[in-house]
């Protein structure tokens, strides 16, 4: 992901951050100061200027006798405002070291290797299923995460973790088409804008993702995103090879900046990414094509060999506080799974969601599906390999 402008929503973040720290100070009688946001790095230590964690001052920090002094946290790159980490450290006296990953497979490999040192990890839905099946996760103790009650039932008990035994939702979003509205007489409404009728060869991109991009070709052809029929995949391969000759790149790493700069005028895109690009380019819009699109959810999980599972539970519970959830959602431009967060989101955030076309209505939800990634869907990897090989 690219770095992000935050001037439009910063006032709400400052207010919520100050409110949280004032509340913490009132509960302890100590003075609290607002932490400042450092530049992101990998790894990141959200320290407050001392090598020793400060004493816990908040009632949102669990049992001080069981709480660790530090926690190692693995998250997607640029997927949380570091003010959240700094506030947790200020309130709870826990030093947070965050490392980042850029693919679920990278995160899975880190945990598979063993002794990763991570006590809390953020991964996407299908990755939870993979890690669960490989015994890489430990069950959550929901008595230590009382804020789980705040979560929207519609985002719970999903296919990859029935009963939410191993995971709880962090943020969710969709995959569709982002475009520069000044380049189109009428908004694109079909995947054909990137496949059969792409007007912008050299100025368009598809995600570098075998599952979602092969899935988008299947949608264009009238199939579902989880179709495994070899004949359908042969058609999808042909469509992708034709698209490959036109697009500027299969790109998941730089397309946000390319949309923002105008280098790319239309792209297969994650919904939240369109919101980020809009901050630099107010012409960016987003649509779920008429054939359908993708919905996906990122989740909190605790590795089976986590060195401090109790602190991981407390940290998860902390991020499910409504004010903290608002900070996270304002930063990511995703959708919150926390039912208590929407009233706290700023008018600026909601204006971006509405203007860009990210409003998630019931009608749009009906056109979205989760991607299934299991042994039965190995054909997607083969189709993608054939695309990369040129057929």
Q: Describe the biggest sheet?
A: 11 strands, mixed
| Fraction in beta strands | 15-25%
Structural class: alpha/beta
Measured distance between first and last alpha carbons: 30 Å
Oligomer: single chain
Rg over C-alpha atoms, rounded to the nearest angstrom: 21 Å
Task: List the helices and strands in order.
Answer: HEEHEHEHEEHHEHEHEEHHHHEH
Q: How helix-rich are the residues, as a percent range?
A: 25-40%
> Total number of helical segments?
13
Shape verdict: globular
Poorly predicted runs are 1-42, 46-51
Number of strands: 11
So, the CATH homologous superfamily of the largest domain? Periplasmic binding protein-like II
Mean pLDDT score: 88
Q: Number of folding domains?
A: 2
Report on this structure:
By secondary structure, the protein is an alpha/beta fold. The chain has 2 domains: 10-166 and 302-350, D-Maltodextrin-Binding Protein, domain 2 (3-Layer(aba) Sandwich), CATH 3.40.190.10; 173-295 and 361-389, 3-Layer(aba) Sandwich (D-Maltodextrin-Binding Protein, domain 2), CATH 3.40.190. Helices cover 35% and strands 15% of the residues. The protein is built from 13 helices and 11 strands. It has helices at 10-28, 82-92, 104-112, 125-133, 210-220, 230-244, 255-261, 271-280, 309-319, 322-332, 347-356, 362-365, 379-389, and strands at residues 44-45, 70-76, 95-101, 120-124, 168-180, 204-206, 249-250, 266-270, 284-287, 293-301, 368-369. α5 crosses α6 (230-244), α5 crosses α13 (379-389) and α6 (230-244) runs parallel beside α13. Mean pLDDT is 88; it is low at 1-42 and 46-51.
């Amino acid at each position: 992901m690219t770095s992000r402008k935050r001037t439009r929503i910063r006032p709400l973040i400052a207010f919520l951050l100050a409110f949280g720290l004032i509340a913490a100070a009132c509960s302890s009688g100590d003075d609290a100061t607002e932490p400042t946001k450092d530049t992101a790095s990998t790894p990141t230590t959200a320290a407050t200027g001392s090598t020793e964690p400060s004493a816990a001052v908040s009632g949102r920090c669990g049992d001080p006798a069981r709480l660790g002094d530090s926690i190692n946290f693995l998250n997607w790159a640029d997927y949380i405002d570091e003010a959240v980490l700094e506030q947790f450290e200020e309130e709870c006296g826990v030093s947070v070291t965050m490392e980042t990953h850029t693919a679920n497979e990278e995160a899975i490999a880190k945990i598979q290797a063993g002794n990763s040192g991570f006590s809390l990890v953020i991964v996407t839905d299908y990755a939870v299923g993979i890690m669960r099946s490989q015994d890489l996760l430990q069950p959550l103790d929901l008595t230590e995460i009382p804020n789980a009650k705040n979560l929207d039932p519609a985002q719970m008990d999903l296919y990859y973790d029935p009963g939410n035994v191993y995971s709880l939702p962090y943020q969710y979003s969709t995959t569709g088409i982002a475009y520069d509205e000044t380049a189109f007489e009428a908004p694109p409404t079909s995947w054909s804008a990137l496949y059969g009728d792409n007007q912008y060869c050299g100025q368009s991109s598809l995600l570098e993702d075998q599952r979602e991009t092969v899935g988008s070709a299947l949608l264009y052809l009238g199939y579902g995103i989880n179709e495994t029929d070899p004949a359908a995949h042969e058609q999808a391969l042909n469509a992708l090879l034709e698209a490959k000759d036109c697009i500027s790149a299969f790109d998941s790493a730089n397309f946000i900046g390319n949309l923002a700069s105008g280098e790319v005028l239309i792209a297969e895109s994650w919904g939240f990414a369109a919101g980020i690009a809009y901050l630099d380019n107010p012409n960016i819009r987003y649509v779920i094509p008429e054939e359908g699109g993708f919905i996906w959810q990122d989740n909190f999980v605790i590795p089976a060999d986590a060195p401090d599972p109790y602190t991981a539970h407390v940290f998860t519970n902390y991020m499910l506080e409504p004010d903290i959830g608002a900070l996270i959602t304002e930063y990511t431009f995703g959708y919150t799974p926390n039912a208590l967060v929407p009233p706290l989101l700023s008018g600026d955030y909601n204006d971006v969601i509405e203007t860009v076309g990210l409003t998630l209505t019931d009608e749009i939800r009906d056109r979205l599906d989760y991607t299934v990634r299991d042994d039965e869907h190995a054909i997607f990897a083969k189709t993608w390999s054939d695309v990369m090989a040129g057929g």
